[in-house]
Amino acid sequence: MYSIYHFFAKLIHERAQLTDDRNLEQLPFLTDSMFFSCHSIGIFPDRAIRLQPLPLLYRGGELLEFKDSKGYSVSSFNSTLPTGKKPIDAFIGTKIQQQMEAAGENILSLPMRDVFYLIRGREQKRTEKAHVKVCLLHGSFFETIPIQQLIQETFAQILQEGMGDQLSAAEKDRLAALLTTHQIFNRVCLIPGASVNPGFRVMAGVTVEGNILKTTQYPQIAHDTLNLILPFYSPEEEEQHLTLTQMALEDNFGEVIMKYIKHPLNGWFIVFQCPLN
């Protein structure tokens, strides 16, 4: 079976590797071509979970990004802003599409994909073994306002601070309204006569509210634990997460405890937590 819940079961089974000094991308069980339909380095996503052949209780197809951190902070997002869902047509014509289709998938059968981040942080200590936190976190934890609005308001602020009175308020609003996707800037430009090719990237660092590893902000995420963290907006959705997690984990569900996080900007999240050792 393929789904984010089964991936969490896989993490529990291989949890000893999660305290390894190697980068997440180098861990052998995270290169399993039978479980993932794509594998990439340096571009989003790092992995995609395979689609289920039939739309059963578990659909699969989730997109994964790996994030290793030194200390209890989430490393910055480069080129791709964090989101809870991403349309699959964003990958049409790319190597991601080629890999998924080579794995036998009809990628358009699930046009919108949930996005998860596998985040690992190590507490920095000099004299004793460092604590580790691992979180498999739904991207909506970071997307507290829609990405288009985030980009538009960012450029509105830049225009206001950089252009001052050189542009009217209407001109600034019009320019900001045109700048709503990071793809506009996420490219290398070829300039005639230039000996270099300028390029720009959109980068984003998390705020205190977005740092799931910060102990004082989110004490529910204990040292040396592995956590699946999912949003819910109704008792029915909460119950569905519980049922699907329990079914996927089978006997390992007895090791899991449930907790709840109230994101100060984005509602409630349920946490399925188990020890790393």
Describe the structure.
- This protein is an alpha+beta fold and 277 residues long.
- It has 2 domains: 4-142 and 220-275, no CATH class; 149-200, no CATH class.
- Helix content is 22%, strand content 24%.
- It contains 5 helices and 13 strands.
- Strands 1, 2, 3, 5, 6, 7, 11, 12 and 13 form a 9-stranded mixed sheet that branches. A two-stranded antiparallel ribbon has the order 4-10.
- Strand 1 (36-39) and strand 2 form a beta hairpin.
Layout: helices, strands, pairs:
Layout: H1 4-13, E1 36-39, E2 47-49, E3 63-70, E4 77-78, E5 85-87, H2 95-102, E6 112-122, E7 132-138, H3 147-163, H4 169-178, E8 187-188, E9 199-200, E10 203-204, E11 225-231, H5 235-249, E12 257-263, E13 267-275
Parallel strand pairs: 3-6, 7-11
Antiparallel strand pairs: 1-2, 2-3, 4-10, 5-6, 6-7, 8-9, 11-13, 12-13
Helix pairs in contact: 1-5, 3-4
Q: Compute the number of structural domains.
A: 2
Q: What is the radius of gyration computed over CA atoms, rounded to a whole number of angstroms?
A: 20 Å
Oligomer: single chain
Distance between the termini: 25 Å
Give the integer mean of the pLDDT values: 88
How much of the sequence lies in strands comes to: 15-25%
Q: Identify the overall geometry.
A: globular
Percent of residues in helical segments? 10-25%
The main β sheet shows up as: 9 strands, mixed
Output the structural class.
Answer: alpha+beta
Which regions have little confidence, pLDDT < 50, spanning 5+ residues? none
Q: Count helical runs.
A: 5
Question: What is the strand tally?
Answer: 13
Q: Please provide the ordered H/E string of secondary-structure elements.
A: HEEEEEHEEHHEEEEHEE
